[in-house]
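dude i think i finally got it to work??
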Amino acid sequence: MTRPRFHLAFPVDNLEAARRFYGDVLGCPMGRTSDHWIDFDFLGHQIVAHLAPEECEKAKTGAVTCWDARWGGRAITG
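look at this
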């Protein structure tokens, strides 16, 4: 049985920064590109960074006093 695949498109305000993060830091192979978007293979899923700086305004959030997350089985707290 194969697992379902997904396609996720998201806005970025800097394509080169997105390429460095998803390609170099996370190691996602880069697929097709244009002047306005970059496809990446994220563990067999397609993610697409679309240049849309107007959609990347800083989100208004409340204060977070404590958090807990797991990355690669390791607990990370703040």
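The longest strand covers residues 45-51.
im so relieved honestly
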